């Protein structure tokens, strides 16, 4: 039996510039980090003693006579990509719910591909594993997704990821002191808004609008370098990162009407009134998790103000302590 653990992620800046419709013409970049919440997959060859060929267990259980009959898109796509027709048993659990803006779908795809390669006694390096996951989601499944989630799930850590016009990418670990990352984490609070969404549905609208949003996306692309400079230069106030998040969120909301809604806007404004400097809704938009940047002395006031939302403790790589506490 193979067991994999793949990290979920938070994307700070540059989301949207990793969509092929933009990056193939302009290049793109994101600043993102893995967090201490994970997708777990167990995988084994199915013994030939059952009245079904394969079994897939996630929020539902599928027992199928042929792998092509599997309903779960990523499972079906990964098995198709790897030309696996033999019976297989796959179980999936995760620390946080799906469709909430934390890259859960791509974490699943990366973890499953790694499991399947291991079953075949084959190994893939991080770069190739990310490439395979991007291919499965964009080409096999034809989903309206970017490329950042697959890369951060395969690599982990806190990185700047550059996307080039030829569909290649490179990953640059953030060269910031451990103390600086801990300072950033001390200013972060994560809340679950209480409702989920399907990212590809929101993304499809954004992709259609991309030709009309060149100025906004160009600015969001430039913000990646600005944010990186703030984190790597300890002489700059960490508060500048929060203010940049606020400006980025305003730009992101302007891309399409699907990204935010009155409930999300109300949550965000309440957070600002409670002392947050900035924040953003994670993922494509429409629901899921909201991240706030708030001075540590205002943390309690923010959590009290948003007491009706679930505050989820998270840890960034190298920071070493959870970032949601009273």
Kindly describe this structure.
This protein is an alpha+beta fold. Helices cover 39% and strands 22% of the residues. The protein has helices at 20-26, 73-81, 104-119, 126-140, 148-155, 178-186, 199-209, 214-232, 239-253, 262-273, 299-305, and strands spanning 2-13, 28-45, 54-57, 61-64, 88-94, 158-163, 169-173, 188-192, 278-281, 289-293, 310-311. Strands 1, 2, 3, 4, 5, 6 and 7 form a 7-stranded mixed β-sheet that branches. Strands 9-10-8-11 form a 4-stranded antiparallel β-sheet. A hairpin with a 7-residue loop joins strand 9 and strand 10. The longest helix has 19 residues, at 214-232. The N and C termini lie far apart (41 Å). Residues 320-326 have low confidence and may be disordered.
Can you give me a brief rundown of this structure?
With 326 residues, the chain is an alpha+beta fold. The chain has helices at 20-26, 73-81, 104-119, 126-140, 148-155, 178-186, 199-209, 214-232, 239-253, 262-273, 299-305, and strands at residues 2-13, 28-45, 54-57, 61-64, 88-94, 158-163, 169-173, 188-192, 278-281, 289-293, 310-311. Residues 320-326 have low confidence and may be disordered.
């Amino acid at each position: 039996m193979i067991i994999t653990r793949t990290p979920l992620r938070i994307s700070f800046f540059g989301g949207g510039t990793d969509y092929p419709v933009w990056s193939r013409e302009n290049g793109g970049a994101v600043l993102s980090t893995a967090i201490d919440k994970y997708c777990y997959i167990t995988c084994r060859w199915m013994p030939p003693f059952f009245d079904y060929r394969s079994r897939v267990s996630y929020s539902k259980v599928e027992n199928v006579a042929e792998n092509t009959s599997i309903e779960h898109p990523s499972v079906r796509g990964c098995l198709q990509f790897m030309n696996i027709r033999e019976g297989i048993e796959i179980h999936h659990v995760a620390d946080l719910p799906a469709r909430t803006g934390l890259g859960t779908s791509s974490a699943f795809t990366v973890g499953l591909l790694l499991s399947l390669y291991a079953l075949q006694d084959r190994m893939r390096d991080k770069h190739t594993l990310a490439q395979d996951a991007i291919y499965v989601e964009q080409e096999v499944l034809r989903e309206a997704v970017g490329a950042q989630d697959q890369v951060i799930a395969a690599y982990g850590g806190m990185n700047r990821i550059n996307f080039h016009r030829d569909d290649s990418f490179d990953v640059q670990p953030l060269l910031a002191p451990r103390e600086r990352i801990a300072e950033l984490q001390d200013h972060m609070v994560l809340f679950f808004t209480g409702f989920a969404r399907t990212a590809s549905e929101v993304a499809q609208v954004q992709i259609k609008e991309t030709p009309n949003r060149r100025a906004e996306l160009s600015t969001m692309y430039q913000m990646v370098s600005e944010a990186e400079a703030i984190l790597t230069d300890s002489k700059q106030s960490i508060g500048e990162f929060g203010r940049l998040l606020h400006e980025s969120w305003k730009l992101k909301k302007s891309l399409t009407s699907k990204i935010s809604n009155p409930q999300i806007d109300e949550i965000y404004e309440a957070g600002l009134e409670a002392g947050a400097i900035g924040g953003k809704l994670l993922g494509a938009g429409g629901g899921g998790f909201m991240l706030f940047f708030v001075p540590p002395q205002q943390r309690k006031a923010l959590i009290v103000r948003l007491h009706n939302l679930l505050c989820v403790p998270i840890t960034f790589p190298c920071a070493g302590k959870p970032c949601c506490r009273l």
